[in-house]
Amino acid sequence: MTFQPNSLMDRALQAAAVAAKHAEAVDREGRFPHEARRAIAEARLFGAMIPKQFGGDGASLAEIAEVCCQLAHGCASTAMIYAMHQIKVSSLVAHGVGAPWHEEFMRRVVREQLLLGSATTEGGIGGDLRNSICAVVTDGDRFTLEKNATVISYGDDSDAILVTARRAPDAASSDQVMVVLRKQDYTLQKTVGWNTLGMRGTCSDGYVLKGAAGVEQVLPQPFAEIAAQSMLAMAHLLWSSLWYGIAASAAIKAQNFVRAEARKTPGKVPPGAMRVAEMNSKLQLMRSVILDGVRRYEDAREGGDDLGSVPFVVAMNNVKIGASQTMLEVINIAMNVCGIWGYKNDSPYSLCRELRDAYSAPIQINNDRILGNSSSLLLMNRIDTRLVI
Questions:
Q1: Closest listed residue to residue 27, CA positions, set 200, 196, 194, 195
Q2: How many CB atoms are located within 10 Å of the residue 190 CB?
Q3: How many whole angstroms separate alpha carbon 339 and alpha carbon 344?
Q4: Helices 310-338 and 273-303, packing angle to 10 deg
Q5: Can you count the helices (H) and strands (E) in the chain?
């Protein structure tokens, strides 16, 4: 693939180079990747998905997925922050068009290169996105809410946070809305730190969030529609894209290790060469699953109703499960290829950061929870056995 000067991918590669330069310090210190964030903003990438009518690039899902992949080659935390931001942007794009406040907010995201965070988890419900304890309390044209959020993605460094809550204090826990709170609309009181095995730079601490804003900042559609039509599928696809970037980075290190060994013993094929071929096979499988998921999402979005169908939901769940598991397989093979040089933190072939970051994938919306959801759907529906869909 060739990149045109100042094209989206050219700008992404420039930002990825900055992210890679500081990735080790970000991981070691468990700090937010400020340098990468500035590079992404300077490259005008935060508003890439926003339609051109609001000042953005109107980038496709495939293009955003590639940006996530490129960022992940150098710094998985940066890629995860960017993916989470774009998942929030996708909700604005899918559900905010036609609402004046949200249209102007999209223009502001592009103009000021704002970073959007997410507050969907909550004490008492854990990672169940489709239920909330906190509620929107409306008084005239204003509302307030208070949420005990066990995780807010890079909360300290967000310019705005999209928050889920019950529609009203007397609403059912599943009768939810999503609201946009700008920095001036909320306060955060930190309750839980983020000292993790991997993805350390995402700095997703827990907070008590207290917000107050105008009712026009509530997205018009119920959160059930937002989750089904944009958020969950986008999360599975963009996360899987950055996981592919992590796996590919590990595979390249293992390939370079085998090449170095081959130069030491001319005429002999190093024992790790076969494992490199095995890794490449798994990477191709992973890539195919993700690209098929991207295609299905874009086709379904054109069709509208397909986004809520059982085959589509199960297919998106399978992308997430397959990508998160295959990534770990690739990295484990790479670790065996590189041996002690992959195990050491100070080696040019070190795979320690990739391995630690990768173990976040199966528990980021736990695979067992997703499999449980799919199993319930498949009890009532036939498994799709077609080869060509």
A1: 200
A2: 13
A3: 9
A4: 160
A5: 12, 7
- State how far the Cα of 58 lies from the Cα of 196, in Å rounded to an integer: 35
**Global pTM exceeds 0.90:** yes
Enter the CATH code of domain 223-380. 1.20.140.10
Please report which confidence band the pLDDT of residue 307 belongs to, taking 50, 70 and 90 as the band edges.
Answer: confident
pLDDT at 384: 80
Locate the DSSP E strands across the chain: 116-119, 137-139, 142-149, 160-166, 176-182, 186-192, 206-214
Q: How far apart are CA 235 and CA 162, in angstroms?
A: 14
> The domain 8-114 is classified under which CATH number: 1.25.40.280, 3.20.20.80, 1.10.540.10, 3.40.50.720?
1.10.540.10
pLDDT greater at residue 128 or residue 257: 257
Domain ranges of the chain: 8-114, 117-217, 223-380
Superfamily of domain 117-217: Butyryl-CoA Dehydrogenase, subunit A, domain 2 (2.40.110.10)
User: Which pLDDT belongs to residue 5?
Assistant: 47
| Of 15-24, 119-128, 324-333, the least confident | 119-128
Q: Which of 11, 188, 179 is nearest to 105 (CA)?
A: 179
